[in-house]
Amino acid sequence: MSCRESDIIGWFDAAAESAAGQQTETLRRILLRNHAAEYLKKWLGDVDVQSLDASALESLFASAVPLASHADLEPYIRRIADGETTPLLTQEPITTLSLSSGTTEGRPKYVPFTRHSSETTLQIFKLAAAYRSRMYPTREKGRVLEFIYSSKRSKTKGGITVGTATTHVYASEEFKMKQHETKLYTCSPQEVISSGDYKQSAYCHLLLGIHYAKEVEYVTSTFAYSVVQAFRSFQEVWREICNDIRDGTLSPTRVTIPDVRRAVLEVLRPNPGLASKVEAKCQDLERRDWMGLIPELWPNAKYVYSIMTGSMQPYLSKLSHYAGNLALISADYGSTESWIGVNMEPCSPPDKVTFAVIPTFSYFEFIPLRRQSHDTDDCHNTDDFVEDDPVPLSQVKMGKEYEIVLTTFTGLYRYRLGDVVEVTGFHRNTPKLNFICRRKLILTVNIDKNTEKDLQSVVARGSQILRNTRAELVDFTSHADIGRQPGHYIIYWEIEGEVEEHVLEECCREMDAAFVDQGYIVSRKCNSIGPLELRIVEKGTFKKIMENFIANGAALSQFKTPRCTSNPALLRILNICTIKNFHSTAYAS
Ligand code: AMP
């Protein structure tokens, strides 16, 4: 491990040791900087922030400033977007806004992005890289095969730059610094990352990845979905890639954007030897259903690094299939609003990973959540947790679940992130979190309450049955159909490979029976919820859904398939693409 790496780990150890003090100090710094902004003035009035010590400030803050949702801050963010320059959320004017992906409803949300956002991104990248290189050292001046994509940036009528947070980061000085400081360079030039056309970028990432095959030290993307998606498309385009490698050319049909063509062609040189080798490997891999594709084509790669937790879990088995015996390292925990925690133990399997909170990045509060007893009379409750009052980081308890609340340097105050986490332990005095799910309930018809996590387990149970066939689940989503009585759940599946109808009937029955929520079970037994319906959609449907998101401003790097949707545009795509449907026979007396 280099000096620089041990320095940054030392820095984090010290911050974690004094986590409580770091938190009050972080809050003090945020308030000192921004107390004159309109939003804070509204709640804190003319309190002399300077005169209060850190812990008095902490109690004042919690009692005077209310918990907020994005909707509460939106009017201020809209005024910023419209060009108002008076201090609204922060003292310094905000010139950039980020599009948060809005994972539950698929509706884009703008949040402020400042220099602090890129600086903390660089900081956590370096910290995580230091932990990884302790376990899996990489060679200096190597390459990283990164499936990263910027979306287009635009200006609001008030002249504010808007784009996704990843787009701002890839365009920042800090992103260049990250490459220099970690001494690892991404395979693709900036023109590829920011082409704005994910298909063209993906082709170039793969082509350049092959070009630099021997130098690639690891394979990565923000979310695991993008790695899986890239290799699925590799299975279709590998012959063209080999032709381009052989001749030093770039397919004129796959890549048409002049700047991207110029930048990629500058790098490529005819390499018939490499092309023949890759071709032979691909022919062999095709026979093995592409098992172990990554180590076969990138023999010096040490690991695959990506977010594999939460809504990415369903892609894990396909990722392992491509990764063969290569380590899978689950990446860190953050959001467009703020980075939260780092994975300090790269060796832990993706389903066991925890994130140690970085106490200097934002001021974190935690709303204690208790799961409700499944009270069937409780028809009006739309959430399955009871909340207690928020507690500061220093008071969280091991084994308990919380919703995260953020106060950031970028102008969000007591902002409910909507993520549920469990405290699984501590690194020194900072909590280690296990990501549980997004807070919002996703599937509900009446008294039933099922979260994203519940749905994931049910789909995992159902798709287990496909293991005995040659088919596999590509992606899924769901919808609570209350248009007809009784309402019922619809689960949409896209499958690759052939499977007999009776097997799908069995999958459908298995999923219906696998919901453990008492509200659902009781409702199914008395038929106040109808039989679960499994709809099989044609190949490529989920790609269309992703493209629909991208057409609406999301970036592929940030994309997460919505696991439940009532969005009419998505439902239209899903229903047009449905080729078969099945109704469950579970609970049929
Ligand atoms: P975005 O709005 O696109 O920035 O997405 C942020 C959200 O992605 C978070 O609030 C989480 O719900 C999810 N997320 C981010 N990092 C992780 C992680 N390491 N594990 C699970 N979910 C994550």
TrEMBL record:
Source organism (scientific name): Salvia splendens
Entry annotated with the keyword Signal: no
One annotated Gene Ontology cellular component of this protein: cytoplasm
Molecular function terms, GO-annotated: acid-amino acid ligase activity
Keyword annotations of the record: Ligase
GH3 C-terminal domain mapped to chain residues: 453-568
Domain of life, per lineage: Eukaryota
Protein name: Auxin responsive GH3 protein family
Family under the similarity heading: Belongs to the IAA-amido conjugating enzyme family.
PANTHER family the UniProt entry points to: GH3 DOMAIN-CONTAINING PROTEIN, INDOLE-3-ACETIC ACID-AMIDO SYNTHETASE GH3.10
Residues spanning the signal sequence: none
Residue ranges occupied by any GH3 middle domain in the UniProt entry: 356-438
